[in-house]
Write a structure and sequence with these properties.
The protein has 272 residues and is an alpha+beta fold. The chain is built from 10 helices and 10 strands. The strands form 3 sheets. The protein has a 5-stranded antiparallel sheet, covered by helices on one side. Strands 6-8-9 form a 3-stranded antiparallel sheet. A two-stranded antiparallel ribbon has the order 7-10. Helix 4 packs antiparallel against helix 5. The protein starts with 10 loop residues before the first strand and ends with a helix.
């Protein structure tokens, strides 16, 4: 069996470490507390996404190495878009456009596999969001039930850290939150992530806060150029997605997310 160097992984994460493996592949080696069932779920999602036509790493199989379970993935070269943005922040608008192109291409793809339903996932998150006052939670759940479902590939956590780039090539990674759903909800999720980073302490430098907003503006503008229409519906998704993000226990964003969720009253009034 191939040996690894536990002291020198390519990357360390909360749930797994990433190691060199056979030619053209890497090994995502999970920590022992991470269940086999969850690893098998990630394998299923990764295969379904790759089969759908989205530019994503192929998953080759499940292995056991030194008493730990791991998944063997196609190795993708390059740096994350976040790293590139940090090195070349003046390219914010360009990177936002690339992000939009990747997201628009993803949303052309239909999810044929048995994967989680986006609406059900958002509903469960809203119900777990203890920071939401009960009347606000009820309003968000009601609005969620009135919005269109979908059958497209939705990433669920699409932002620059989950895009790997090398020259003119880009690949989307980290599909554990993927679902079948409405692309506009997926766009709203990206907006909440980017604008929340700029609003809170995740981005400390005031100039970088401005540049993150520029990246977001370029992303949103180009996305709706590529997939016209839907801006009003996108705005209806924003409070719902913000409310659902409260279930993720991000204390520094709680006040901002609650304020975004309260916009449900305005968006629903405008819709009527």
């Amino acid at each position: 069996m191939k040996q690894i160097s536990p002291e020198r992984p390519l990357a360390r994460g909360r749930t797994a470490d990433v190691h060199e493996w056979e030619e053209g592949t890497i090994l995502k080696l999970f920590h022992n507390w991470f269940s086999l069932e969850d690893i098998q779920y990630e394998q299923m999602i990764a295969r379904a996404v790759h089969t759908s036509g989205v530019k994503s790493p192929a998953v080759h199989g499940l292995v056991q190495v030194e008493g730990r379970n791991g998944l063997v993935y196609e190795r993708v070269a390059g740096s994350s878009m976040l790293e590139i943005f940090q090195r070349r922040p003046w390219q914010a608008a360009l990177l936002g456009g690339i992000l939009a192109e990747l997201h628009a291409q993803m949303h052309e793809c239909v999810f044929e596999a048995e994967v989680p339903d986006q609406r059900g996932r958002l509903g469960r998150k809203l119900n777990r969001a203890d920071a939401l006052p009960t009347p606000l939670k009820t309003a968000l759940l009601s609005s969620l039930g009135s919005l269109r479902e979908g059958d497209r590939v939705c990433h669920g956590d699409f932002h620059p850290a989950n895009v790997l780039m090398e020259e003119n090539d880009a690949t989307v990674i980290d599909w554990i939150d993927a679902s079948r759903g409405n692309p506009l909800a997926d766009v709203a999720r990206t907006s909440v992530i980017l604008l929340g980073a700029a609003a809170g302490s995740q981005v400390a430098n005031p100039m970088f806060k401005i540049l993150v907003r520029i990246l977001h503006y370029a992303y949103l503008k180009h996305y709706f150029q590529l997939r016209p229409g839907g801006e009003e519906e996108y705005r209806r998704w924003l409070p719902i997605v913000a409310g659902a993000r409260l279930s993720e226990n991000i204390p520094e964003l709680e006040e901002w997310l609650v304020a975004q969720a309260k916009m449900i009253q305005k968006t629903e009034r405008n819709h009527r």
